[in-house]
Amino acid sequence: MEDIYINKASFGDDFSWGVSTAAFQTEGACSEDGKGASIWDEFTHRKGKILKGESADTACEFYLNYQRDIDLVKQMNIPNFRFSIAWSRILPQGDGEVNQAGIDHYNNVINYCLQQGVEPWLTIYHWDLPLALEKQGGWTNRNIIEWFINYVTICANSFGDRVKHWMVMNEPAVFTGAGYFLGVHAPGRTGVKNFLPAVLYASLCLAAGGKKLKEILPGSVVGTTFSCSAVEPYTSKQRDINATKRADAIINRLFIEPVMGLGYPMADVPVLEGIKKLMQPGDADALKFDFDFIGLQCYTREMVRFSLFTPYIYATLVKAEKRNVPLTQMGWEVYPPSIYQVLKRFSAYAPAKAFYITENGVAFEDQLIDGEVNDTQRVDYLQKHIGQVLKAKNEGVNVKGYFVWTLTDNFEWAEGYHPRFGLVHVDFKTQQRTIKAAGKWYANFLAGNE
Ligand code: NOJ
């Protein structure tokens, strides 16, 4: 891989730089001001689901003290801040009565961003489904389309006068795959019988949510975010190449292709044909939506080999630790060209207009020593990935922004607090913040000094 020289100027003035977070991973205050429980509140209190039995009841206390962290965004010269709304703060039961305190809270966060000169970018759904809805089937109940559209409508009407950039959903392949097939994320359900309806109804909500936002806020910029990775066969054996094709269909194609009007990748993954039985007249059209932008979230590369023991896709990921490659705290390979490859590849979907990298970042074993975190590895990771974004841009990909995951160390789902992804270190005992060397580097870069 060639080293690519980057500075802010080489991206042009209209490139959007930012940092991303999510409600459940940062807010804490899990039952404050009338908030209802979410599936993650419930899941984190189940035995054996989260590493070391940790919960996000307090997390980074972003709910109670959002000013402190938005001040850090400003201090690091970051112009755009992406965060999510917790559905069960707005609608404690998911549907029905609105909790005005929840709306007031997000109004305060948005207003504080704007006062600080930081542009708020909103994700409507980042995995924290109201528990009351899960009790009625959650993402496997077709009624979720109505529930979701009601929630989107309230968000658009409440915040749309000040928020220009919207993302309907975060990584649907992950919340359906990990939450409804593998059971390692909330709500912990497993199997094809849960996964297929969750996939279909999440896709329908995605498109319907985009349409609703545009209808209420015609001047807004509406996108959504997808997880994606470069996916390669572990060997050149034909059966590994075929397995890679199947894994790729699930990892990269499952959600974007229906939105683009291409349907589900059933030819490569026949089990998806089960979705046909769930479809109703009009669904094929209802799955399509012309988003203003697609957010891509890329962290690593996957290597795939054939496996007889993995039903349905007969493919397995070869762990990075077995491949003698540089590793992150998540056990993921550090492989910067992946972000270039996904940008090139997704931009080949003809209807897609524009792309943002809405997440990229890394967890390393950070050490706080004498009040400093000297995370040079993270600086290197960010520089190389941003370099690969520039390469794609220079080759004509319409990539219009880059957001680091994430602002502060936070609650990394089933992994708890162990992986530290932040530009800012958090001591979870004291809530003390320390800007890491990577945060200082990003601040300098964004000031145009690098
Ligand atoms: C993607 C998810 O959107 C985010 O919630 C998560 O923390 C990061 N990836 C890192 O795993």
What structural class is derived from the secondary structure elements?
A: alpha/beta
Uncertain segments: none
Strand content: 15-25%
CATH class value: Alpha Beta
Classified in CATH, the superfamily is Glycosidases
Number of strands: 15
Task: Domain count, please report it.
Answer: 1
Please compute the radius of gyration using only Cα atoms: 21 Å
CATH architecture: Alpha-Beta Barrel
First and last CA, distance: 21 Å
Task: Give the structure's gist in a few sentences.
This protein is an alpha/beta fold.
List the topology elements.
Blueprint: E1 16-20, H1 23-26, H2 39-44, H3 66-75, E2 80-84, H4 87-90, H5 100-115, E3 119-125, H6 131-134, H7 144-159, E4 165-170, H8 172-180, H9 192-216, E5 221-227, E6 230-233, H10 238-253, H11 256-259, H12 274-278, H13 283-286, E7 293-297, E8 301-306, E9 315-317, H14 337-346, E10 355-360, E11 368-369, E12 372-373, H15 376-394, E13 399-405, E14 424-427, E15 432-435, H16 437-446
Parallel strand pairs: 1-2, 1-13, 2-3, 3-4, 4-5, 5-7, 6-8, 7-10, 10-13
Antiparallel strand pairs: 8-9, 11-12, 14-15
Helix pairs in contact: 7-9, 8-9, 14-15, 15-16
1-deoxynojirimycin binds near residues 22, 25 and 170.
Q: What does this protein structure show overall?
A:
There is one protein chain. The protein is α/β, with parallel strands linked by helices and 450 residues long. It has a single domain (8-446), classed as Alpha-Beta Barrel (TIM Barrel), CATH 3.20.20.80. 36% of the residues lie in helices and 16% in strands. It is built from 16 helices and 15 strands. It has helices spanning 23-26, 39-44, 66-75, 87-90, 100-115, 131-134, 144-159, 172-180, 192-216, 238-253, 256-259, 274-278, 283-286, 337-346, 376-394, 437-446; strands at 16-20, 80-84, 119-125, 165-170, 221-227, 230-233, 293-297, 301-306, 315-317, 355-360, 368-369, 372-373, 399-405, 424-427, 432-435. The strands form 4 sheets. Strands 1-2-3-4-5-7-10-13 form an 8-stranded parallel β-barrel, surrounded by 5 helices. It has a 3-stranded mixed beta sheet with strand order 6-8-9. A two-stranded antiparallel sheet has the order 11-12. Helix 8 (172-180) runs antiparallel to helix 9 and helix 14 runs parallel beside helix 15 (376-394). It is globular, with a radius of gyration of 21 Å. The model has no long low-confidence stretch (mean pLDDT 98). 1-deoxynojirimycin (NOJ) binds next to loops.
